[in-house]
Design brief:
Elements (H helix, E strand, L loop, with lengths): L2 H9 L6 E2 L7 E3 H11 L10 E4 L2 E3 L8 E2 L3 E4 L2 E2 L9 E2 L2 E2 L4 E2 L2 E2 L4 E2 L3 E2 L4 E3 L2 E2 L4 E2 L3 E2 L4 E10 L4 E2 L3 E2 L4 E7 L4 E2 L3 E2 L4 E3 L12 H5 L2 E4 L4 E2 L3 E2 L4 E3 L1 E3 L4 E2 L3 E2 L4 E11 L4 E2 L3 E2 L5 E7 L4 E2 L2 E3 L4 E11 L4 E2 L2 E3 L4 E7 L4 E2 L3 E2 L4 E11 L4 E2 L3 E2 L5 E7 L4 E2 L2 E3 L4 E3 L15 E2 L4 E7 L3 E3 L2 E2 L4 E7 L8 E2 L4 E6 L4 H8 L8 H13 L3 H18 L2 H14 L5 H21 L3 E2 L10 H9 L7 H4 E2 L3 H30 L1
Parallel strand pairs: 1-3, 2-4, 3-6, 4-7, 5-8, 6-9, 8-12, 9-13, 10-14, 11-15, 12-16, 13-17, 14-18, 15-18, 16-19, 17-20, 18-21, 19-22, 20-23, 21-24, 21-25, 22-26, 23-27, 24-28, 25-29, 26-30, 27-31, 28-32, 29-32, 30-33, 31-34, 32-35, 33-36, 34-37, 35-38, 36-39, 37-40, 38-41, 39-42, 40-43, ...
Antiparallel strand pairs: 58-59
Length: 637
């Protein structure tokens, strides 16, 4: 036993701290430490024995496996030659603060106080599966280097915090199925995926293959998870985790290109999820089927996963606010089939996924407002199809570009905005700049606020219903609006606009809109129908211009009256014929279902006979078209 070991032996009964001297007096045998802690030295009367050693170099094996030790163990700034072993031990308090270790075996250890490794330097694995720590597990400012798993702590139970603020960890951290009563603190930590995943055991091989840096599946945290300003190079997986407090990655950086950077699928986050500030992720953020209370914040975040999903949160249930203001995303942002019980705001967001979907809100049920306005921009499709929004969908001042080629305005071009079967009390699209078609088919809107100056080249409107238009619908502007529909001959959009115009008290404008619809249908019909349609248009304006029919009758009546006044026809039976009246005779020719007795009593000859035939034919045409128009009018009524 050297001088340092004798000093430690004498100091143990009273718990007096011992500090190693010069290099020659730094070595302490691990066996000496073990013997002291297993009862080789009894406590001094009235004192509490404890092992307090700093600055020493521990040689040989330090093992307390299956031991029960009540004395506190405080090893500060020590260097271990071999890995300490405390498997299945029952300890009161143990600290390896600022120590240098080749690893630590602490499987199923029970620690009544803290297990501290703050400031430690570990070149190997910290093995703690099944550990039960009544206090906290402290790794603040620790540096851990492992080619495989850095911290293996499945089923760990921690009564306090897991504190690893400013830690520098290279290797996989596994706390799956654990329970932590306090917080998980990774503020400003640096965590890097293992460099040799083939050295990882089978249960964690899949996570290692995905460049995992944290495996926390089914972890229960009664406090919060804080990794503010942290840096993660690899996947953080918190599948089915249940966290009572806030989960905050504010100002953090996550990197896992082409793979998942953060996986929160089916997690329950009762205190909200915070990915805002200077948060940056290269790789996919996933929160599918997650349940999030309070707030989901992405404000100012920068997400990058080109050609893939930057954010996947389908079937998510959010009880609070979705704050994605000023988010910048390169890749698809998807929240399809999610339930949003608070307002959702993408104001000022910039989403990019050229040739694909930039924002997918299909099937969303939102009880409040959804804002895609105030500088919102998307290169790629914005889809809100089949969604139900309880208040307002706002696209004011948004810039939507379906195709990376701004000149691509073909009707077959990708939709810039799809609102198919949307249900919303108010839709705002004022001064919205849209490059690409817009799909409003079968949408149900209460109030539609738009701007005629910014209508896209193609508007698909079949089945769209609305109660009010703002600005108020002017017949000229709205006819131009309907004309942008590639299926412009479809009846419903015109009748919907006409019903709104009638509700505004503008019957003349309503008739003009319906006349435009009939003309559009005629242009797309076969030639017999086109001929008949042109005839109806010229004569009675398809029934929407009744004064035109009256005018034609007056013209024909005047022409016939003048002709037959100058050349009265001869009587068929001179002895029985009534007095000839040119006006009545012409009316008898023009009105097919009326008989004044003049037509049968007189027989025109030559050219005037052909004139009578023409008048009879014109009368039948006018009568038929008027009847068809009346039928349409009655059907509309």
């Amino acid at each position: 036993m050297n001088t340092l070991e004798r000093r430690l032996w004498e100091a143990f009964p009273t718990g007096t701290p011992v500090t190693a001297g010069p290099d020659g007096e730094r070595e302490v045998s691990g066996e000496v430490l073990t013997r002291l802690l297993l009862g080789a030295q009894a406590p001094a009367p009235g004192a509490r024995a404890s092992l307090r050693l700093s600055g020493a170099r521990i040689t040989g094996e330090f093992s307390l496996r299956f031991a029960q030790v009540d004395a506190p163990i405080i090893l500060d700034d020590c260097e271990f030659e071999r890995m300490p072993v405390i498997n299945w031990a029952r300890l009161g308090f143990i600290s390896f603060a600022r120590c240098t270790l080749p690893g630590l075996h602490a499987s199923n250890v029970i620690v009544e106080g803290h297990l501290k490794l703050n400031g430690a330097r570990v070149d190997g694995e910290l093995r703690m599966p099944g550990a039960r720590i009544s206090g906290g597990l402290v790794l603040d400012r620790a540096r851990v280097r492992s080619a495989g798993i850095a911290l293996q702590a499945e089923r760990i139970t921690i009564g306090g915090d897991l504190a690893a603020g400013r830690a520098d960890i290279e290797g996989l951290i596994v706390v799956s199925q654990g329970r932590i009563s306090g917080d998980v603190d990774l503020d400003r930590a640096r965590c890097v995926a293992p460099s040799a995943p083939e050295r990882i055991d089978e249960p964690n091989a899949l996570l290692a293959a995905a460049r995992g840096v944290l495996g926390a599946d089914s972890l229960v945290v009664e406090g919060g998870v804080f990794a503010r300003g942290a840096m993660f190079d690899g996947e953080l997986r918190m599948w089915h985790a249940r966290i009572t407090g806030a989960v905050s990655f504010t100002d953090a950086t996550m990197t896992n290109p082409g793979r998942v950077a953060l996986r929160l699928d089916a997690a329950t986050l009762a205190g909200g999820l915070f990915l805002g500030g200077a948060f940056t992720a290269t790789g996919e953020i996933r929160a599918a089927h997650a349940e999030i209370s309070r707030t989901f914040t992405l404000r100012g975040a920068r997400l990058s996963n080109p050609g893939g999903a930057a954010l996947r949160a389908e079937w998510m249930t959010l009880q609070g606010t979705l704050d994605a203001r000023r988010i910048v995303a390169d890749g698809r942002v998807g929240l399809e089939d999610s339930v949003l019980n608070g307002p959702a705001s993408f104001n000022g967001a910039s989403l990019t996924n050229p040739g694909g979907v930039a924002l997918n809100l299909n099937g969303v049920v939102a009880s409040n407002t959804v804002n895609l306005c105030d500088g919102f921009s998307a290169v790629g499709q914005v889809q809100v199809s089949g969604s139900r929004i309880g208040s307002v969908l706002c696209l004011d001042t948004a810039t939507l570009t379906a195709s990376p080629d701004p000149a691509d305005v073909r009707p077959s071009a990708p939709f810039a905005l799809r609102l198919w079967r949307l249900q919303v009390p108010e839709l705002r699209m004022r001064t919205t700049a849209v490059t690409g078609p817009v799909d409003l088919r079968h949408a149900r809107v209460g109030l539609l606020r738009d701007d005629p100056a910014t209508w896209p080249e193609a508007l698909h409107l079949t089945g769209l219903t609305y109660e009010t238009l703002e600005p108020p619908a002017t017949e000229t502007d709205r006819r131009a609006w309907l004309a942008r529909d590639p299926a412009e001959a479809h009846r419903q959009p015109y009748e919907q606009l006409a019903s709104v115009l009638r509700a505004q008290g503008d019957d003349d404008a309503a008739r003009a809109v319906l006349l435009t619809r009939q003309r559009a249908r005629t242009r797309t019909a076969g030639w017999p129908a086109r001929v008949w349609g042109v005839l109806q248009d010229v004569t009675v304006g398809y029934g929407y211009r009744p004064l035109l029919a009256a005018l034609w009758l007056l013209v024909l009546l005047g022409a016939g009256t003048a002709a037959y006044s100058a050349h009265p026809p001869r009587a068929a039976k001179p002895d029985e014929a009534p007095a000839f009246h040119a006006v009545i005779y012409t009316l008898d020719l023009l009105l097919p279902l009326v008989d004044f007795g003049q037509q049968t009593a007189f027989l025109p000859a030559g050219a005037y006979q052909w004139l009578s035939y023409a008048l009879i034919a014109a009368g039948w045409i006018l009568a038929t078209t008027i009847a068809a128009a009346l039928t349409r009018s009655l059907r509309r009524t």
